[in-house]
# Entry
Amino acid sequence: MPGGIIQAFIDILYPPYCLICHTRIRGAKAREPLCVKCREKINTLTAPFCVKCGRGVAGAYTREGKCALCLKQNFNFDRAWAGYAYDGVIKEMLHYFKYNHKVSLGSALARLMLDFIGEYRLPVGSCDYIVPIPLSPARLREREFNQAYVLAAALSNHLKLKLLDNNLKRVRNTKSQADLDRIARWKNIQGAFKLKSPNLVKDKTILLIDDVLTTGATASEAAGALKNAGAGSVYVLTLAN
Ligand SMILES: [Zn+2]
Ligand SMILES: [Zn+2]
# Structure
């Protein structure tokens, strides 16, 4: 039986519905998690971006292209990028992805990240390794998968960049960053990462992957561990910020 017919049967048995608004999705878009209307509601970030943390800086105070936060504080990564605002549809998608075990959403979210890479021609092709930011062992047990790993694996596949997993490690369990304020987050994450084989990243250019960049404390700390191990440049790409 041709694939199209099989798919039509599957669609009859399990009609595809939009993840967000639950309306029926028909036709060629049936394999997408979102209907066209919800897809259009995604809040895509647009340039200019802070040259350090990647936050949108349109109309905001900047010096040398840096946002007010980056003028005060030094992140260990060289540069971070995010394609979408962490609100509305994206926030809901990430919630389903992480807490409702919808691992299948990973490829759709990775595609959104690839759209952003393409749109702004991010120079990620020169990276030696894609590295997912690891979860603490306790969190991994609870969630059963690392959302950053799922995104990183899909991106590595599409970008033909080598995935380096299980080298950057969380060496201690930390409290959930979501429950802490800005200052506490920096303290909570300090010293949380270590490299299993530091030699592997020596002089390498690394692209760190996570789902969201909030304060940037986690990404900065992970980048710091990589730099301590001798990594050359460390970039960070997240779906949202
Ligand atoms: Zn919808
Ligand atoms: Zn910034």
